[in-house]
Design brief:
Blueprint: H1 2-28, H2 36-43, H3 57-65, H4 78-89, E1 99-103, H5 124-128, H6 147-151, E2 157-160, E3 163-166, H7 176-180, E4 186-190, E5 195-197, H8 205-211, H9 221-225, E6 231-234, E7 237-240, H10 250-254, E8 260-262, H11 269-278
Antiparallel strand pairs: 1-4, 2-3, 5-8, 6-7
Helix pairs in contact: 2-3, 2-4
Length: 279
């Protein structure tokens, strides 16, 4: 009995010593947390989409404290989050204009030439591994497989008539679709600008026209029609300078292939309806 009591006392003493040791270690090794960190975390939307360039909202909040991130760096939170972050950090905030993703291709199934019928994985990168870089004759065009749709956490992308179409209101500008597109067809554009070029083909005009009725033929009629020097035709077709564009619509009217759109005006009805309904 005495031996049992002795053993219990020894074990109890050891437990007490270990407990004290852990308590001391916890105090000595304690890492002080900036009280602003939880406030910053609450100011963020919690999407954890990576659109800010960091692993998630927690990582972005920590980067804000160390000055590695800008208060306006969260595309999903937008102006609301940026203003809240600025108040927490006590710094001025410059809020950029709202943006949304735009798919620079109007080559839907009814307008494009296809070399074969793709029946593989629902992944654009996989589709590009096949002959010719995909089933579509235009090597620059949207494959319509839907990797961008799968990447979007906000349900902002639908596949309509064989190409991806972005819902402007649902788009959070997280850029996940931009990174998911292996052809780099998706670009971030100003939300308030409705005139865009839905083609980035680098083919000569005559060749582009043979394989896609919605392709840019580099005729420069849009460039000549613009009175504000906002449209210029380069190797990959027409490019709009949004800082100069007044959205007068003259380039849309003059474009013979209707690859310049005003929220879907001038491109195939099935695609146009999808875009205008999403506007």
């Amino acid at each position: 009995m005495t031996g049992v009591l002795y053993a219990l006392l020894v074990l109890g003493g050891m437990g007490l010593l270990f407990g004290l040791g852990l308590s001391v270690a916890a105090i000595k090794l304690k890492v002080e947390t900036d009280p602003r960190l939880p406030l910053l975390r609450e100011a963020l939307p919690g999407a954890n989409c990576g659109g800010c360039g960091f692993a998630g909202c927690d990582a972005f909040a920590e980067a804000l404290l160390t000055g590695k991130a800008s208060p306006s760096g969260c595309p999903v939170g937008g102006a609301t989050s940026a203003q809240a972050i600025g108040q927490i950090l006590g710094v001025p905030v410059t809020i950029a204009g709202r943006q949304n993703a735009f798919v620079r291709c109007g080559g839907c199934e009814s307008k494009s030439l296809f070399r074969y019928d793709y029946q593989g994985l629902s992944d654009c990168k996989a589709a590009m591994q096949l002959a010719g870089g995909g089933s579509k004759a235009c090597v620059y065009g949207c494959l319509g497989v839907g990797s961008c749709k799968a990447a979007c956490q906000f349900g902002a992308i639908e596949m309509i008539d064989g190409i991806a179409v972005v819902n402007r209101e649902k788009c959070a500008a997280c850029t996940m679709c931009v990174r998911a597109c292996p052809k780099q067809l998706i670009a971030m554009v100003p939300y308030n600008n409705t005139v865009h070029v839905a083609c980035v083909s680098g083919d000569p005009g005559r060749e582009a026209r043979k394989i896609c009725k919605a392709g840019c033929i580099k005729c420069k009629l849009c460039e000549k029609a613009c009175q504000f020097d906002a449209v210029h035709v380069k190797d990959n077709g027409a490019i709009i300078d949004y800082a100069k564009c007044t959205q007068c619509g003259e380039c849309v009217k003059k474009c013979p292939s209707k690859c310049i759109t005003a929220l879907g005006v001038g491109i195939p009805a099935s695609v146009s309806e999808g875009i205008t309904q999403n506007a």
